[in-house]
Each structure stands twice: as structure tokens, then as C-alpha cells.
Design a protein that fits this description.
107 residues; 5-stranded mixed beta sheet
Length: 107
């Protein structure tokens, strides 16, 4: 969907706002993550969103194409510095960065 929008519409910035599963003991329900880096769990590709409105980017958001329910895997991701995990942000970021399109993320 992101590729289609970027290829066919006049877009100057993409904002991804969604829900992510928190990882680690320092993440609580209702926390807002404005990630410094988004990592595609499946490929290892990193994307770097631009924060909006003076927000300070901090932390790592992981994205996986499959639902990960293995507690050991999730704990390992948290131990590696991931604050949260979702299923779509990395794909949007990769599409934007491939076109030089600025983008932002919050979860």
C-alpha cells in the first residue's frame, strides 16, 4: 500500500502511527515510543524515521512479518535493546527511504 501511495499520489511526508507490543521492564501500557531506529526483524534492515513536532527520537522498534509469541525470542529482543515490536512500520520505512521520502513513526 505504501508503494502505491508513494507512486501515485503527491506526498511530501509519511507518518506511521500505530500500536506496538512493549518489550522489557521499562515499557508500560500507554507509553509513547518515537523510535530512533526501526529494524525489520526478518531481514535486519534498519530504517531511521524523522521525529515530528520537536519530539525526541529514542529507542528501537522491531517489526516482524509474523506474530512472535515465543517468550524467549521476545525477551531476547528486549535484551538487545528493542523497546517494542509491531508488524508494519519497517515496511513503510523501507519504502519511504528507497524513494528518499521523509517519514516519521510513533507507537
Amino acid at each position: 500500500a505504501t508503494n502505491f501511495v508513494l507512486d501515485h499520489l503527491d506526498v511530501d511526508h509519511v507518518a506511521v502511527i500505530g500500536i506496538a507490543g512493549g518489550l522489557g521492564p521499562d515499557v508500560h501500557i500507554g507509553d509513547l515510543l518515537v523510535p530512533e531506529v526501526v529494524v525489520n526483524y526478518d531481514s535486519g534492515v534498519e530504517s531511521h524515521p524523522t521525529p515530528l513536532g520537536g519530539a525526541v527520537a529514542k529507542g528501537k522498534l522491531m517489526t516482524s512479518g509474523v506474530l512472535i509469541v515465543d517468550r524467549d525470542v521476545l525477551v531476547g529482543l528486549a535484551d538487545d535493546g528493542a523497546a517494542a515490536i509491531d508488524m508494519e512500520t519497517a515496511a513503510v520505512g523501507e519504502a519511504c527511504e528507497a524513494r528518499g521520502m521523509p517519514w516519521s513513526a510513533a507507537a
